Amino acid sequence: MRLPFTRSRPSTPETPQVRLEREGRDEIARITRAVEKVPWSINLVQLLWTAGPATLIGAWASFLLGYGRAPTTENYIFFISYTVITGVAGILANLTHQFTKSRRTERTSAKIAKVVTALPELLLSTRDLIVEKLEGNARRREAAAMLLRKQDLSPGGVELAALELLDDRDSARIISQIEIYRRSGLKARIRDLVALYGETIEPQLAELREIAPEAASLLHKRFQGRAPTLRRGVPRDENFIERILAAIGQDDELLMTLQDVEEMLILAFELISGRQIPMLTFEYKGRWRLAQAFDALEQARARHRIAQATGVSRLKALATYLAEQSGTLMEDAASGLHSEVLLSRSQGAINALAEQVQRLALAFNEGERHYHPQLVYKADLLTNAIRLYRSVSSSYERIGREHEQLIRMLERWESINDDQHAANTRLRLGPGRRGLRIRERIIELNDEAKAQVCKGLAKVLGDMEMTGSRELNVAKEREWRLEAEVDRLKRLAIEITLILEPHIQLSRPEVQRAINSTNAADFGQLELNLSAAAKAAMGAAMVKEIEVDLSRSAEQLALALVRHYQVELEPEAIDFLIKQYGARKKTLNMLSNFHASHSHKEIPNVSYLSQRPPAVGKPPRSWYRALVVARRALNA
């Protein structure tokens, strides 16, 4: 009994670190238990019941029905002896199984813990390698952008990032002061500083936007008093899955970048931590001719989108490759640059590289043999650059062919649709069998799939540790060491993709679109010194913080309905998309008005004017001539 007005003994508080450890261990144990779903105690009770009372009762009833009388004493002795012998044998077999299963469970837990520990560490190593592969100002900008993506970045960190990007201490100090006011919730002071120093900082941000759009956008948000949040997450690098699959299909790791490795590591850790990614698609039920035309049109749209993504992906791979190599004019391939800018910079860098190769070959022919290593290096760079440029050219040529096929499928859909009743192709919201419907799916790993993925990744990580240590011992020079580490990480991203494919079908276009349309979880708070249990708990917590935002996917579906399928957005459909998926009413009304103000024949089939592919063309002959001159000089 506690006396009134007396203080109770304070309980020992559970520190955040201890709570993380406990929650993380529970998460690992829960995934492990998914491998063996039935407890051994239940199996043991079932065995005892089957070998004991159930057998005796069954024997007695069978004897009574067969002979019309109860069993004799000899019969009871027989059945009891049989029951005891089989029961003991079953118990011994079950105990043997439990001993072996406990070892297997321990091994599974160890593999899960190994993967949960390794993925965040590999993620940080990949980011460091991305920065290390760049040079000069490009390295400073990339590092600053990584800092600005951190949700918990201190005012000092914001000032450092601003100084790296703007190279102006006064502007950096102002932005850090805004960060301090933001943390204190003093929005009035933020507005004062923005109004006072906007004329100075805005032109600097505009100049930065020309060379590093994404970094400029991140810094501009900090200047406006806005910071990343765990609920919003981090935007993904678009089409990273396509680039990795292309590297697998064509056996060419140059088609993928280190940023793709980073994105795949994040995706794998998200799924293991319990991330659920929603996916919206169309389906049609109704007349078979319309259904056939619908399937053909959907396949044509998917192939056209893949062709567009492939062209952009190949161009980014080329620009990134040139930026990562020393001695090229391509300083960086900053995120957010338009395709035309990337193409122009890449062509200029390859032109300069071809001129360098020709000059080195001429000097080598004139007897300056010390240029041999440099000539070999530059010739290899030019060879790889030409190969990547040819893949860019063929990818953009494919867009035209897929566009023609899409137009034919659209015309077929329209001709069949004109002959059918309008109700057959309207967007169905309530009961009814025929019509277009929106289908929802969730991309996720259940506990059993998580355990299987972790087992596969643990084996891959073990093999990487063995081969990686040998490669890095040989690769003592910086360039060789970097290339060896890049190759290891790219092989890891490829293995992760192959392990995830049977569970979530990454090769399907709709799955790739769903993943690209969502933001990734912000794992910036994960540190190297955390244990596996703490990393598991933090990963699960960060994944749960991500808000489900289907507004972008819903608006894309609405656009496809109006522009491709000639379906009118009725008021009921607009209300449904707004309430169910959070689509913007203004956007949907604009699409509805567009459909109403144009006749059926006036609506163009496809309009991609904002995404018109750049004129790539074939590689110039001067590039090939430079390679021929270099080859002749080296073989002389």
Characterise this structure.
With 636 residues, this protein is mainly α. Helix content is 71%, strand content 3%. It has helices at 16-33, 40-51, 53-67, 73-133, 136-148, 155-166, 169-184, 187-211, 213-223, 240-250, 258-272, 288-324, 339-365, 372-419, 447-474, 478-504, 509-516, 532-545, 551-563, 571-581, 585-597, 621-635; strands at 277-285, 435-443. The chain has a two-stranded antiparallel sheet. Helix 1 (16-33) packs across helix 15. Residues 1-18, 469-476 and 599-610 have low confidence and may be disordered.
Q: What is the structural class?
A: mainly alpha
Order of helical and strand elements:
HHHHHHHHHHHEHHHEHHHHHHHH
Global morphology: globular
Largest sheet: 2 strands, antiparallel
Helix share, percent? over 70%
Radius of gyration: 32 Å
Uncertain regions spanning at least 5 consecutive residues: 1-18, 469-476, 599-610
Tell me the strand order in the biggest sheet: 1-2
| Count of DSSP-assigned helices | 22
Number of strands: 2
Average pLDDT over all residues: 77
Strand content: under 5%
Distance between the termini: 100 Å
